[in-house]
Design goal:
Structural class: alpha+beta
Strand order of the largest sheet: 1-9-8-7
Strand content: 5-15%
Radius of gyration: 36 Å
Distance between the termini: 107 Å
Helix content: 40-55%
Shape: rod-shaped
Number of strands: 11
Number of helices: 20
């Protein structure tokens, strides 16, 4: 009988009892570390090691080298757990009858080797894992001859464990859960979650989703003159940049900066041709908003013309050079079409600095013909940097003086309406022009006059 093998209260009895306690503790530790360490993703540990709290950064930096080879770690912990659980009945059989050894071993393993350790490591896995990291390193060396070959087989069969990253839709939902309005303990404000969601959604939005239709855009005729009525109309709209067209309002050839009109005398009726007219980029209606934002960052202009290419709709492919010209800031003409394409440099930081505010962006109408564009390119509207930023913020940016139509809600808004009832003194044209120039480039759904 097992009771005759080891008598109670002897030195051997207490030695076996200590071995049983040690095996249960070791088995529980292996089971807890298996759940705790394997549940910690590599991405989560890298995030904690770089931007977590001070204590979390210390813990994550200790755990990260241990869990990098996940299959090797898994094999080591499971081998240690199996050895402890298989050895426990051997020692119990020397102290109690076989039926009691089975009952006690199952109870000890279930309570103290599985449930309790895994519950603790699930809640405090980072702390326990960092504390036991030296022991885990030692076990990796001890069980290396057995665990490493098995882990290589698992790598070959299942592939190495890669960091699990969230897809864009999952990340957006994850951010929403971290907002303080979700009631889940997050500390992100409404504006923060909105901006992050807008940045994630911008990859799916195109120029046609944020543009202002050409019928609602305020523009100037190249053959017109800057009379008092025209200058008042420009100031009323409150834009800092106004498109310029030639003959047809859809044939936009450039733009004029309103600040360049400060020195214009309304009594002189200066022709618009005599003013400095800048080139305006042309972008396809299907161009992503991020690409448009990159074009705006080059410094040529903060407003662009959106067009639809009828050849693409009919399935006629375009060559690479033509695609590059459409995405760049170039404007082809009959006489210098190839020259303009060659001058369009790549989007690099050096390019941004070199061409910002340079003569390359100015239309020289005295020495060069008026730019002409392919008849297959139908102008749909205009888009500004403010339109792109509004899609990022997912909110309208209301200017102090603009009159426009909200393209999302189709509501006409006049920011000057609230001031018309105030007894303000009459301003001179120069004072009105100065106040109008404070507005940002707001072609967002502008009404034509």
């Amino acid at each position: 009988m097992a009771q005759e093998d080891v008598k109670c209260c002897g030195s051997k009895f207490f030695l076996f009892l200590a071995a049983i306690v040690g095996l249960v503790t070791f088995a529980g530790l292996m089971a807890g570390l298996t759940l705790g360490l394997m549940s910690l993703g590599l991405v989560d540990l890298e995030v904690l090691s770089k931007s977590g709290r001070t204590q979390d950064r210390i813990h994550a930096s200790k755990i990260l080298p241990v869990v990098k080879n996940q299959h090797f770690l898994l094999c080591t912990l499971l081998i240690g757990n199996s050895l402890a659980m298989e050895s426990l009945p051997i020692f119990l059989d020397k102290l109690v009858p076989p039926w009691a050894a089975i009952l006690i071993s199952v109870t000890l393993i279930l309570m103290f080797g599985e449930i309790l350790p895994q519950a603790i490591c699930t809640r405090y896995g980072l702390t326990v894992g960092a504390t036991m990291a030296p022991l885990v390193r030692l076990l990796l060396w001890i069980f290396f001859p057995v665990a490493y070959p098995i882990s290589k087989v698992l790598d070959w069969m299942l592939g190495k464990g890669h960091a699990i990253l969230l897809r864009r839709a999952e990340l957006k939902t994850f951010v929403d859960f971290h907002g303080n309005e979700a009631g889940k303990g997050g500390d992100l404000t409404h504006d923060e979650t909105t901006i992050i969601a807008g940045a994630l959604e911008m990859t799916e939005k195109r120029a046609k989703d944020a543009m202002t239709p050409i019928s609602k855009a305020f523009s100037l005729d190249l053959d017109g003159t800057l009379t008092l009525e025209k200058l008042n109309a420009i100031m009323t709209m409150g834009h800092s940049r106004v498109p310029v067209y030639y003959k047809d309002p859809t044939n936009i050839i450039g733009l004029i900066l309103v600040k360049n009109l400060l020195g214009v005398d309304p009594e002189d009726s200066v022709p618009l041709r005599k003013m400095m007219i800048r080139k305006i980029p042309r972008v396809s209606e299907n161009m992503p908003l991020y690409d448009i934002l990159n074009e705006f960052q080059k410094g040529h202009s903060h407003i662009a013309v959106v067009y639809r290419d009828l050849k693409e709709m009919k399935g006629v492919p375009k060559n690479t050079k033509e695609n590059a010209a459409n995405k760049s800031d170039s404007h082809t003409s009959k006489g210098d079409g190839d020259k303009v394409v060659k001058k369009s440099p790549p989007s690099t930081p050096a390019f941004k600095k070199r061409h910002r505010g340079c003569a390359f962006c100015i239309l020289d109408l005295e020495n060069n013909p008026i730019p002409e564009f392919p008849p297959s390119q139908v102008v749909l509207g205009v888009i500004t940097m403010e339109d792109v930023i509004e899609e990022l913020l997912q909110e309208e940016i209301l200017d102090e003086t603009d009159e426009y139509v909200n393209i999302h809600n189709k509501i006409k808004i006049n920011m000057n309406a609230s001031y018309e009832k105030l007894p303000l003194p009459i301003q001179s044209p120069s004072e009105s022009s100065s106040s109008a120039l404070c507005s940002a480039p707001q072609l967002q759904g502008t009404t034509s006059q």
